[in-house]
Amino acid sequence: MWFKILVLAAFAIFSAGFACSPQNSEYRGVLIAENDSYEASIYRQNCAICHGKEALGKEVDGQLVPSLRFGDAAKRTDDEIYQQIANGKLPMPSFKGQLTEEEIRRMVVFVRKDLQGRETQD
Ligand code: HEC
To answer: Is cis: bond before 91, omega within 30 of 0?
Structure first.
């Protein structure tokens, strides 16, 4: 009986800590709202509507748009991220017509370095 309570208490403390910690780690990368780089403004204008203001993912029309900071996005190579932005992948539109090649490249670096805290590869 006491053991059960102890386990429950330990679990409660553990999960409380767990619930708090993502908030800190979510912003391991830059805070987009406070970032005045060119890339952050491209993000706010073109990407935030689906991926969320801070790129943490969002539900759009009942569909879950992934975070660009965590999960699968953080496993993508530069080329895969480039292709995704340039060509899109339904339901994400292609940005070839809206962004120049240079801007798409800068967005790849923005996603990898500023949002995910990873180094870029060639
Ligand atoms: C209309 C909504 C929409 C907009 C606007 C949009 N995206 Fe997406 N994006 C998506 C969806 C949905 C996916 C997941 C596609 C899939 O399931 O493969 C995605 C996937 C991605 C991925 C791959 C993530 C992964 O998990 O592998 C990257 C990188 C990405 N988007 C970057 C961007 C960038 C940068 C912009 C702005 C230039 C942008 N997206 C704008 C909807 C959008």
So the answer is: yes
